[in-house]
Amino acid sequence: MGTDDKWLVEFSYPPKELNPNNARGHWAKRRRPAKRYRYECFILTRQAIATNGWRIDQLKAVVEAGQGVHLFLDIYPPDRRPRDDDNIIAAFKAGRDGLADALNIDDRHFRIHPVVHRDQPVDGRMIRVSITSGPGAARHLANQ
Fold first, then answer.
1. Exposure winner among 67, 79, 107, 121, fewest CB in 10 A?
2. Which helix (H) or strand (E) holds 116?
3. Tell me: the pLDDT tens digits for 48-75?
4. What strand order describes the sheet that includes 6-12?
């Protein structure tokens, strides 16, 4: 990954069972949806890597050099109802793990920058992740 490159992956919105507000009850009720969502995000990331010819070794070199990998989350909820962005990020944890699995990078190196687009609901609900590092990350921050 060059310092100006930006990789894009689109994921479905996390299942409602993964929302921390729905965490009542037995932990096993969350396990199956979390495992499914993690795998879905893993597969979508691997497909994006193969389709776009991304070089994971370049991204790993960025991490080994001590830099963080910036994940810009453009979150498009299904409707305009008020939602806590921290709950959306927590619900996306399994997706973030799937992304990390596909990139073969520990997710502790991720720097998360969420933006909830409440005014632009998307029918299918989605989270668009832009992956970048270096000066490209700074420019992305400036353009938000």
1. 79
2. strand 110-116
3. 999 999 988 888 888 998 888 999 999 9
4. 6-12, 126-132, 69-76, 110-116
Q: Rounded distance, CA 32 to CA 137, Å?
A: 34
Compute the residue count for the chain: 144
CA pair distance 102, 24, nearest whole angstrom: 30
pLDDT at 62: 87
What's this model's pTM, rounded to 2 decimal places?
A: 0.85
For 89, the token pair is 């990020």
What residue type is 29 in one-letter code? K
Q: Decide: 119 and 82 in contact? Cβ < 8 Å.
A: no
Q: Specify the pairing of strand 6-12 against strand 110-116.
A: unpaired
The C-alpha atoms of residue 106 and residue 77 are separated, in whole angstroms, by 27
Question: Which among 138, 135, 81, 140 is positioned nearest to 115, based on CA atoms?
Answer: 140
Q: Which residues contact 73 (CB under 8 A, 6 or more apart)?
A: 89, 92, 112, 113, 114, 115, 127, 128, 129
What distance in Å separates the CA atoms of residue 110 and residue 126, rounded to the nearest whole number? 20
Contact 13, 73 (CB under 8 A): no
Residues 6+ apart with CB under 8 A from 124: 12, 13
